[in-house]
Structures are given as structure tokens and as C-alpha cells.
């Protein structure tokens, strides 16, 4: 039985992209069953900012298990939850002078997106949501409705109504004033578009092809929401928890969204956890109105607390800055130099190599396949999968980061021969 037959006989997996059986992982390296090493530039699509099996986080989880800590607490208050809340309040919210209430949601990102949509509708008594072209928010019916990709929605036969997609400042929209456009649509009785309860946005459209929102654009978006009395929701699932440098990706614009969604790396260890931060005046849920069996995984609380402790004691944010400079320089000098049709975009430790207009239809996929053969795991994103998305763990050491980048360069060379 070959690897494809073995992996896809009764499950769906990523085996077509990465034809091997992965077995263990440490830091930024993943090993397959035969012991072959792969540098990880995928990091669980942003769930592994602290790398695989981070020593400090892992040891905290092991100690908790050894002490017979509560394994599942439903919605009960537990010491693991209490500790997480104390640490999160102290090192994130209070430290940044942010006033949010915390709603634990189901295990995964899309659950918190659903909670945000439900709450926005309840607060504003309005079902309308504006999302953006290129947006990705998840796979359940509500989050899928605000995801812009028509391809992945095609088989669903309809999602939520009342969703309108607005232009995001990317590529061909760069010279178009999208905020002015939204403002005029809202002011024009003849636009046919009703005022929504909320606007949901990503500061970097990651799945959308690493499109970075300009700071001024985010500030104007906040102002627009204030002027029209619309809630602003930031989906920080993929680029939150330090990916862009600061803990929250919107910090660089100095704005405060009304709701913020976190998941992926919040648990520090790839454990399922998602939460919604809500401005206190919006917290109008009745007790039990939004619940769920796996709302708040106890091991994830332990991992998340340990991750915050690690952040506090390390120079993670400064290190991200240094690695950002390296990535920016390397990608511009070594990859963009190949052709003016290759576009590099990114911030912090999320970068995209856009080959939409270079190398032919499946070029990005050929690069990721060749990278895999050479020992690097990297994925594609964006329109028709034409962007190579670079997303290493934040804790990757400089040597491994450079090694991974050299593999990328080699893959370009090999694919262009
Ligand atoms: N929003 C964003 C920005 C994401 O990147 C993702 C996952 N790629 C989601 C929502 C959905 O999260 P999950 O897959 O955990 O449901």
C-alpha cells in the first residue's frame, strides 16, 4: 500500500501535500516515521507560535497531569481557569490598558467567530454583517458566510444571509479608497445596502494571501464604525498572540476593536481553545445563553498560562522584530530579485510570496512540493493558491530560519530549470 492509499483510504488529510507519516516534533523541526527532518514553516497554520513541545509549556502540562488536575470542567470554575484568567488579565489586558470581558468559546476558532456574530446581532438587534473580500473566518455556517472564498462555499448550498463583502485594500484595490466607499454606501439611501450590526476584519488576511492592512486604513475603519455606530470585530485567530510582533495584531494601529477573537496559539501548545474578548458594555448574554461542553479545555488553560509566563520572561517580541527584518531582507533580495512579477508581502513572522503572475498556473504548489522534498514544510494561500505563505514558529532559532529560507531559494531554482 503506498502512502496515498494508506493515508486516504478512510480519512481526509494533508497527505497529498506532504506525502509522509509525521511522527514527532521539537521546536521548529518535525520528524517523520523514518526519522527524516523537516523544518516547519507552517506551524499549524499559526497554532504553534511557541513551536512543538516547548519545554516550559510541556512541563507545566505534565505537572498538572501528574497532580491529577481536573481534566474536564465543563463551565465550572476551576483553578486552571482561574490561573489563566489572572495571568491573561495581568500580562495582556491590564498591561495594555484594555478593558474586555472574556467569553470562552468552543474548542476551535470558528466557534468564537460564531459567538461574535451571535452577540453582534443580539446587541444591535440587526442581523447584518460586513466582511471583506479575501476574508477567511472558518468553516461553520456563520463563519463560512463571512468567508469570501466562493470556491469553498460552493457545495454548502447557502449560508447566513445579510452578509455584504466590502473591498479590502489589496492588489488592484490599492488606489481605491475602500473606507470612503463603505462610508458612501452607508450614507446613500439608494445604495441598497443596509447598515450592519458589525464589521469583521483581519489585520492581515492570512488565508487570503498575506494581505497586510495599512495602519491608517485600520484607524479610519475604527472611526467609520464609531461614526455609524457599528461594532468592529477583529479576527486575530491567525495573526494574534505575537505573530506580528505585539500580542494583538491591531496594537500597531493603536485602535481598540469592540470584540476580538483569539484561538490557534493562545493555548501555547496546539491544544484546542478559543475565546472572544468583549467590551464590558456589550456583554449582554443571559447566563447559559452561549454555552458548550468543551468551552475551555483545562489542559489548554495550563498551556495558555505557561505560554503567557514564558512570554513575560523572554524577549519574544524583540526576537520577532529581528526575524522580521531578516525575512523581509531575504525574501526581497533573494526571491523578489528573480522577477518583478514576484510580490513579497508581510509583517512580523507572516510573509507571503505572491506568484500569481509568475511561473504558470500551479507554480506555488510546485514550490511547496519541492520544498517538502528538500526538507521544508510550507503551505500556499491566497487566490487560487498562488501565494507561498511563510509562517514559522516565533521561537525558531536564526540558524534554522536561515536554513529554511535557503531551501526555499533552492526550490525556486529547481522549479525554474
Ligand atoms: N479566522 C482566521 C483568521 C483563521 O485563520 C482561521 C483558521 N485558519 C479561522 C478563523 C478558523 O479557525 P478554526 O480552523 O480553528 O476553526
UniProtKB/TrEMBL annotation:
Its EC number is 2.6.1.76. GO terms for molecular function: diaminobutyrate-2-oxoglutarate transaminase activity. Pathway: Amine and polyamine biosynthesis; ectoine biosynthesis; L-ectoine from L-aspartate 4-semialdehyde: step 1/3. It is an enzyme of class 2 (transferase). InterPro entries: Aminotrans_3, Aminotrans_3_PPA_site, Dat, Ectoine_EctB, PyrdxlP-dep_Trfase, PyrdxlP-dep_Trfase_major, PyrdxlP-dep_Trfase_small. The keyword Endoplasmic reticulum does not apply. SUPFAM superfamilies: PLP-dependent transferases (SSF53383). Gene3D superfamilies: Aspartate Aminotransferase, domain 1, Type I PLP-dependent aspartate aminotransferase-like (Major domain). It holds the Pfam family Aminotran_3. Keywords: Aminotransferase, Pyridoxal phosphate, Transferase. The keyword Transferase applies. Coiled coil: none annotated. Its cofactor is pyridoxal 5'-phosphate. This is Diaminobutyrate--2-oxoglutarate transaminase. The gene is ectB.
